[in-house]
Amino acid sequence: MLYRNPKNPLITPKMIEPSAEGLQVVGAFNPAAVQFNDEIILIIRVAETTIKKKDIVSVPYFKFTEGKSKIEVLDIPERSPDLTLKDTRGIFYKGKDYLSSLSHLRLARSKDGINFKVDEKPFILPADRTESFGVEDARISKINDEYYINYTIVSGDGYATFLSKTKDFKNIERLGIIFSPLNKDVCIFEEKVKGKYIALHRPDNHGFGLPSIWYAESPDLIHWGNHKCLLRPNGSKWETQKIGAGAPPVKTEYGWLVIYHAKGENNVYSLNLILLDLKYPDKIIALSKEPFMFPETKYEKEGFFGNVVFTNGHVVLPDGTINIYYGTSDEYTCMAQTSINELLNLLN
Question: What predicted TM-score, i.e. pTM, was given to this entire model?
Fold first, then answer.
């Protein structure tokens, strides 16, 4: 039913040029995906860290000047009294937080959907201090002749969802934050329903309950309202911690097909399915009882953060085949193939 491409991983950190001197790429994962002209384009999350130096703690950071950023390296003596090592993810130095790695978004292109060439330069970099800890995990929605790209921006104020758009994957128009902190895993439907734009999103409601998939509507893609909790973690071993939507839902004759990820026991990520009503997409009409995909291969079980399969990009081919592009272990980009009919058959 699910065919993992034998060339997986399709994109690895070794295939990518660092964006600045003194950096190394440690992750190339969680791609958005779209068919554009005669190519399949991925927007991959590229995570970079510093090259280790003796007796020095180095961290990357973004320097902002007039709406543009440049990634630089801060070197700190290991014995500095102003340095606090928080954990493997970051440090605290002279009253400021720094992360051990930062992410930006970069394009990868392929004629066959399997063999990708990654651009040498970043596609989307942080532009101001609301993005000072990087940009992550894009989704692409084609609406009319424009491609709307939403992605997670991270800073000391938390994570939020930003929206940009393009017509050519060369020029980007930044539209602004559409879901404020703490919110991520936003996917925007590729057509209106009853005159409204529709999105799924994932606020962090750890105060009560667990992070869940929510529904929202908008007149203009910027202002969102009519928020409703659509689906909560089901309490199985696959969904003990949180769930979140992936790529834009696929419209079928039976309903909107949504692939979502779940985090469960032992921090394992898996992929599952729900089907939403065509006319009332805030109504679930079917869901699968078990994940259709979970970590099984070495590249899914081992890596920077093992036991992860995470998708935020797919391409549906004319014959109904779906290429699911997914990140594994917070390190690699992979692809698995199935059909829309096969996925629909898993729903109850």
Answer: 0.96
